[in-house]
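Customer escalation, tier 2.

The customer says the design service returned an amino acid string that "doesn't look like it belongs to this structure." They asked us to rerun it and document both sides in this ticket. The original structure tokens are below, unchanged.
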């Protein structure tokens, strides 16, 4: 397995809209394993292919404490519903920044599994939030896009300055 390099905001590649997966082969299985390894090592509770510069509709999530409930979702389609809830979010592509974001409490998920078989379930709580956050990545969207432009501007400057000092 291989740990993949995670892109950091404001890298413009994070703004790419991912395209559907149409080939379910060994390469896809290998890549999804590498995504899980990268997510667990980070450590994070989710990862979208966009974050590792692969612009295909693939996300992995595991919100369990025991790293034992991995979901690999291919071509996910969401129907969020229920109450709106606010919670602190972070992102492996926006390191060390945590801000409150509003999301729907629940989400109905339709996707394909790693073999291309259709799957469907309803998620609540942290799993729901995380799946919404990951699917935003596939659209080129980051949680900082929900903040005021003042806050987002400060975050962007901070990360740009950090990246510059990494010579
Ligand atoms: O590890 C992560 N934690 C997290 C916390 C609150 C809301 C969303 C997340 S997802 C994030 C990993 C990540 O950046 N996924 O894209
Ligand atoms: Ni993220």
């Amino acid at each position: 397995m291989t740990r993949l390099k995670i892109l950091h905001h404001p890298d413009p590649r994070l703004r790419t809209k991912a395209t559907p997966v149409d080939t379910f082969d060994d390469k896809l299985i290998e890549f999804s394993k590498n995504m899980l390894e990268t997510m667990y090592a980070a450590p994070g509770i989710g990862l979208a292919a966009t974050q590792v510069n692969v612009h295909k509709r693939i996300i992995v999530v595991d919100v369990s404490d025991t790293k034992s409930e991995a979901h690999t979702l291919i071509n996910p389609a969401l129907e969020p519903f229920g109450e709106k809830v606010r919670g602190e979010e972070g992102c492996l592509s926006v390191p060390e920044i945590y801000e409150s974001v509003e999301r729907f409490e629940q989400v109905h998920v339709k996707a394909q599994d790693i073999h291309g078989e259709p799957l469907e379930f309803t998620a609540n709580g942290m799993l729901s939030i995380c799946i919404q956050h990951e699917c935003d990545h596939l659209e080129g969207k980051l949680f900082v896009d929900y903040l005021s432009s003042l806050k987002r501007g400060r975050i962007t400057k901070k990360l740009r300055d950090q990246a510059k000092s990494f010579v």
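Tier 2 assessment: The sequence is consistent with the input. The beta strands are 46-48, 58-61, 71-91, 94-112, 118-123. The mean pLDDT is 97. Sent an explanation to the customer and offered a walkthrough call.
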